[in-house]
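Reviewer comment 2.1 asked that we show a complete input and output for one of the modelled complexes. We chose the nicotinamide-adenine-dinucleotide case, as it is the one discussed in the main text.
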Amino acid sequence: MTNKIKVAVSGACGKMGQAVIKAINAEADLELVSAIDITNTGKDIGEIVENKSCDVLIENSLENALKTKEIDVVVDFTNPDLVFENTKLILENGARPVIGTTGLTESQLEELKKLSEQKILGALVAPNFAVGAVLMMMFSQKAAKYFSNAEIIELHHNNKKDAPSGTAIKTAQLMTQERAEFGKDNCPEVETYKGSRGGVTESNIHIHSVRLPGFIAHQEVIFGAAGQALTIRHDSFDRISFMPGVILGIRHVMTIDSFVYGLENIL
Ligand SMILES: NC(=O)c1ccc[n+]([C@@H]2O[C@H](COP(=O)([O-])OP(=O)(O)OC[C@H]3O[C@@H](n4cnc5c(N)ncnc54)[C@H](O)[C@@H]3O)[C@@H](O)[C@H]2O)c1
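Response of the prediction step:
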């Protein structure tokens, strides 16, 4: 039998982290070797996630885990303030990052790309691991060629820290590759309440971020033209929707020695 891929999960006790632990434990070719979180230190992550021991105790330092354990891949679902430093730490210590945490800026992505190339290590950053969401982005890029007006509405749970979502930013970037400026012919606008028209990208795509309890991750891209509208919508009703993409990402970074941004590039 071939060697299993040794995986660590950073942010293991979070909503996404727990789903990732379950998904890894269900795959025969993956071995969970470390669970990192600042909560529940010393507890068995299996007990927390599935009410059964998996003999991996939660540790509170990613750096320490990387320096003391043999780790092939680190999956990170922590928070936007940590993700850049965590990804650097992973590459600097010879492991391969699979990053789901959103909030990385373009210059940080550029820096991480250089570091992964310098270290000759595969790396994946994906603002959305749900295959349906990736298709929504690809279809929106295609539609952008034919519609000169478009707006994005993204809806998430009310504990999401960053806005707009990484998915909305990535969607707008892909649409902008097809059209440099949207809504050129709109009339001059006045906002009675500041922010009513949402955040505006350089290509003049308006992005509206909704934060409500009960939601997980949803996005609508609305294209408008004379006499017609096209709405492209994706809903993640459960975090399980992200898991096939995460598992694919873990396997994929072991086969490459470069940096990939976006799940669409490995499907
Ligand atoms: N790429 C995707 O498909 C996708 C999907 C859903 C969420 N996300 C993103 O993933 C991130 C996490 O989302 P979530 O809903 O699981 O959040 P969450 O708040 O439930 O989980 C974050 C976890 O990180 C832990 N943490 C905080 N500081 C830490 C540190 N210094 N070291 C280790 N762990 C630490 C927290 O204790 C918590 O358990 C967010 O940025 C979110 O936007 C991405």
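Helices lie at 15-25, 45-50, 62-68, 83-92, 106-119, 131-144, 166-178, 243-253. We note this here for comparison with the apo prediction described in Section 3.2.
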